[in-house]
Amino acid sequence: MQVGFYVTLLREGPKGPRVSYLLGPYATRDEAESNVKRGWAEACDIDPRCHWDAHGVTRVETYPNLMPKPVLANRIGLQARKFTSDAVMMVATVLTIMAPVVIPHFIGA
Prior knowledge:
By secondary structure, the chain is an alpha+beta fold. The chain contains four helices and three strands, in the order ββααβαα.
């Protein structure tokens, strides 16, 4: 079994609560908690309704091949990154514009 900690978002819906795994897995709870604000802010950039969602850290223990795939990992990476060029900033802007069309269905919109 493998243990991982994820930055998560919890949204109440008509069929019950839905959990979105935003970032992770992290080896420790402290490491995941240090990324909660970053993950939540990025999710709210994609879907402004997430300001009303609960957010925090979730511990997952399962087989390695069954660990959840975080929805924001490819968007902002698991490690903090800084934009160092105009070309990278332009790509990030395009992703921000396109993301509301692609991601809201995944987080329960």
